[in-house]
Write a structure and sequence with these properties.
With 219 residues, this protein is mainly alpha-helical. 68% of the residues lie in helices and 4% in strands. Strands 1-2 form a two-stranded antiparallel ribbon. It starts with 9 loop residues before the first helix and ends with a helix.
């Protein structure tokens, strides 16, 4: 029987390039929350036809970065304060496992890079710099994802974490969560990562993301 080729087609590559460009524009703030996305304007910007743009937008909608209503609108997702805890907890379920797997595998170079990113994130928390926290905290866990050694988990995280993290991009995020406790939990994560204690690192990660810990479950 003929063996189908697994090589990506030119059309698939074009769609993926378009998706990445729109994704990056959303994540860096070029496209703002609630901003309407017009096909003609996207065609002019990206220099491609309508089909790969619509396919890319559909993928971004599944990731949670785009909101679409047929014949009504296509727009950048607007974070909702009511979704903060749910988004954090979902990230916590993913990142807790990632950290538990990654910490024992960290080489000296990777550990140094993660600790430096943790230091930057802790400083962001101490300064109550919400915008920097939104960027740097996700960057920390992306590094753990890179090092966790589990391709399936890496794929799931990379498909979902940006959309979930985008839901946390609220200017008053520090008023919606216990900011001081999160700062302390990031310090715990740093200490556990440095010492190689993957269980403590996992528990700190889950606490950061508001998952109930042992004390909460007992209580």
């Amino acid at each position: 029987m003929p063996v189908p080729s697994s090589a990506p087609t030119e059309h698939q590559l074009l769609r993926d390039t378009v998706r990445q460009k729109i994704h990056d524009a959303i994540m860096d703030g070029t496209l703002e929350p609630g901003e309407r996305l017009n096909d003609d304007e996207l065609i002019a910007w990206l220099g491609v036809s309508r089909t790969p743009i619509r396919e890319a937008l559909s993928q971004l909608a599944r990731a949670g970065l785009i909101e679409m209503a047929p014949n009504r609108y296509t727009r950048v997702t607007t974070p909702n304060p009511a979704e903060v805890v749910e988004a954090l907890q979902t990230l916590g379920v993913l990142f807790g496992g990632v950290v538990r797997l990654a910490v024992p595998l960290l080489g000296a170079s990777a550990k140094k890079k993660i600790l430096a990113q943790l230091d930057a994130t802790i400083k962001d928390y101490e300064a109550h710099d919400v915008k920097a926290v939104n960027h740097d905290a996700l960057g920390v866990f992306a590094l753990y994802v890179d090092e966790c050694g589990n391709e399936n988990l890496q794929r799931v995280c990379r498909d979902t974490m940006d959309g979930l993290a985008f839901r946390l991009r609220l200017p008053n995020l520090d008023e919606l969560v216990d900011w001081d406790q999160m700062t302390e939990d990031f310090r715990r994560l740093r200490e556990a990562t440095e010492s190689g204690d993957n269980i403590a690192a996992e528990l700190a990660t889950e606490a950061i993301h508001l998952l109930p810990g042992e004390k909460a479950l007992i209580g």
